[in-house]
Amino acid sequence: MKRFLLVSILALTCGTMSIAQNKGAVDVKMLNDIRSTFTLDASSRAIQNAITNSESIRELSLNHEKIGKTDHFFKYRVDVKGITNQESSGRCWMFTSMNTIRPDVMKKFNLNSFDFSHNYNYFWDLFEKSNLFLENVMATADRKMDDREVVLYFKGPVDDGGVWNSFFNVAKKYGVVPTEVMPETEASNKTREITSLINEKLRGEGYKLRNMIARKASVKEVRLAKVEVLKSIYRMLALSLGEPPVNFTWRFKDVDGKISESKLYTPKEFLAEINPDFAKTELVMIMNDPTRDYYKVYEIKNYRNVSEGINWTYLNLPNDQIKQFAMASIKNNEAMYASCDVGKQHNRKAGVMDLNTYDYESLMGVEFDMDKKARILTRQSGSSHAMALIGVDVDENEKPVKWEFENSWGATSGNNGYITFTDEWFSEYMFRVVINKNYLDDKAKAALNTSPILLPVWDYMF
Could you tell me which residues are beta bridge partners of residue 228? Predict the structure, then answer.
């Protein structure tokens, strides 16, 4: 009797579970209803033929009404020249940071052109990221491998990514050098292979360090083991990128054809000469994140490359305030580090970003109606690329109508290496600007002085 009762209860329970699980299933009635909404009439057939035979839905969606409507003229524009190219790498944050100070170097030495060695700082960025990964592994060694933070560290020990604070950290510690002192290599221009190999090495050695700590190895033994790992990382980087110089000699020819005397520098001495106040910078990151309170400072835990460096920290502000401050910087001939969701509504051939550049709604006959907050929270949108913000055009009331980026995809990309974007696009897809805090108003400056709210390493915005 008891066995019969148990079987009955199990059968009833399983039946209930089955009903619950099937409640959301697509049944025949629902499917017939859905099918009835699609009719392959002449218009739909034409669209189907176009889409199924086209290599790009994006090109089919290009909005003809938008073509040629946005010019590339700007009332206010920073004095810049020369376009850089990050090639097949994710170093946009580094190129952009350097592009904002290149004009000052050219002005200081009276040069027609100048560029920094991105390869030099990339070497130290990957080296320092490797060290930070190992430190994070040791700090979380008492947690299980499926701990959320541990998973994140091992998922991507190092990569090309970063933001402005990443450049600040590595340049402050190691300085900078001219491009000819440590030129690019195939591995620095195409970074996937070397970062993949470094990650394989770091994951394996990080796992060993966890096991050493689990076996109660001494702190000294663990730290000595970490140094041995870093020796291997240094070797891998030196073989693929070249070994960074401890010092170098540099001379130049200015616009008048005058050749300077050779001068011996360390990389930190060179940075100090071109930017004496770099280490005590007045630059701050301001950001538009409508998912969080404005006029608050936020800091992302462990979002840095150098262990002793600063984390990614920003002041969250409304768009109209960010635009006001950015205009003031441009009018004063100061370029800014900025980042955005560059893939959205971007006509790369024309070098223009505008709302509805691509009319997917008309092509597909469906609505896409998320606002910026919803796009962020659902991971549909987020900052994907950094560029220098250098220009703004205004109407008769000095209100911005369009803006300009100096990109790092080479001179053949976009409008001779530059991108024009409308003010409406700015509101929807611009995220961050690094600006001298002197351009902020009193309310923003007061908010900047408040204690930051710490966000977790897995935060949805980053």
Answer: none
Distance in angstroms (rounded) separating the CA atoms of residues 155 and 209? 16
Residue 14 annotated to the active site: no
Cα–Cα distance for residue pair 36/32, rounded to 1 Å: 6
- What is the chain's alpha carbon radius of gyration, rounded to the nearest angstrom? 27
Residues 67-101 pLDDT 10s: 999 999 999 999 999 999 999 999 999 999 999 99
Helix, strand, coil distribution of the chain in percent, nearest 5? 45, 15, 40
Count of positions (residues) in the chain: 462
Neighbours of 263 (CB within 10 A): 13
Strands 248-250 and 263-265: antiparallel
**Tokens for 49?**
């033929």
Q: Residue 76: beta bridge partners?
A: 392
For the chain, the first-to-last Cα distance in angstroms comes to: 60
Question: Which residue in the list 63, 85, 92, 165 is annotated as catalytic?
Answer: 92
Residue 73 CA, distance from chain mean position: 27
Is the separation of the CB atoms in 254 and 110 below 8 Å?
yes
Q: What is the pLDDT of residues 284-341, one digit of tens each?
A: 999 999 999 999 999 999 999 999 999 999 999 999 999 999 999 999 999 999 999 9
**Long-range interactions of 270-276: CB distance < 8 A, separation 24+:** 270/175, 270/176, 270/177, 270/178, 271/171, 271/175, 271/176, 272/175, 274/101, 274/104, 274/105, 274/108, 274/176, 275/101, 275/104
Residue among 139, 158, 159 nearest 149 (CA): 139
The rounded distance, in Å, linking the Cα atoms of 152 and 439 is 37
Token digits of residue 173: 């510690």
Contact assessment for residue 391 and residue 80, using Cβ atoms and an 8 Å cutoff? no
Please, are residues 338 and 388 in contact by the beta-carbon 8 Å criterion? yes
Domains and CATH numbers, the chain: 76-81+281-455 (3.90.70.10), 115-274 (3.90.70.10)
118 in active site = no
Q: Residue 340 is inside which H or E element, if any? A: strand 336-340
Q: Which among 136, 169, 316, 407 is annotated as catalytic?
A: 407
Closest to 434 in 3D by CA, of 384, 386, 377: 386
Whether 92 is a known active-site residue: answer yes
Catalytic residue among 63, 118, 169, 385: 385
* pTM of this structure: 0.91
Burial letters for 271-291: b for 16+ Cβ neighbours within 10 Å, e otherwise? beebbeebeeeebbbbbbbbe
Q: Is 370 strand, coil or helix?
A: coil
Q: Which residue positions in the chain have pLDDT lower than 50? A: 1, 4-7, 9-10, 17, 19
Specify whether the CB–CB gap between 249 and 264 falls below 8 A: yes
Give the three-state DSSP class for 455. Answer: strand
Q: Are 387 and 94 in contact (CB under 8 A)?
A: no
**Which H or E run contains 286?**
strand 283-287
CA atoms in the 13 A half-sphere facing the CB of 9: 6
